[in-house]
Design brief:
Blueprint: H1 18-37, E1 46-50, E2 53-58, E3 61-68, E4 103-111, H2 119-136
Antiparallel strand pairs: 1-2, 2-3, 3-4
């Protein structure tokens, strides 16, 4: 994607695909923003998938991630559904985004073509997470 050569992307056009290069830069900006600020820049930049796996979103591209303290442990962080479940001192616009651990790990990327994330991509993200956490032990 960085070089505009991701041919598995169903929206791929001949290399270098300028849209892919742009989308890669947008992902980097979104990841950096969360890393610097602890929350996404906009509500549409991220989405909770399952069991503590989240996705960065840009147009039809998705990039899954999870958080970990990096010590071989993992505690799923889900989207907060009810504002009443949040600390009263944390009632800003991003009350729904959980406090992530210090390390965000990227897992896999795909191009979304349907309403829901493909189950095989979610399974792949879960598998990568398990492998990464085990490696930290």
């Amino acid at each position: 994607m960085e070089k505009g050569e991701w041919v598995a992307d169903p929206y791929f056009s001949s290399p270098p695909d300028e849209d892919q290069i742009h989308n890669f830069a947008m992902f980097l900006a979104k990841i950096s923003y969360v890393g610097d600020n602890g929350v996404p820049e906009t509500r549409t930049d991220v989405n909770s998938l399952v069991d503590g796996v989240w996705e960065f979103k840009h147009h039809h591209h998705r990039l899954a991630y999870f958080d970990t303290p990096g010590d071989g442990t993992f505690t799923p962080k889900e989207r907060v559904r009810d504002r009443r479940d949040v600390d009263p001192d944390n009632q800003d616009d991003y009350w729904w985004y959980p406090h992530m651990d210090s390390v965000l790990r990227l897992t896999n990327a795909w191009s979304k073509q349907d309403q829901l994330a493909p189950p095989e991509e979610i399974d792949k993200a879960l598998s990568i997470r398990e492998e990464d956490v085990q490696h930290d032990k």
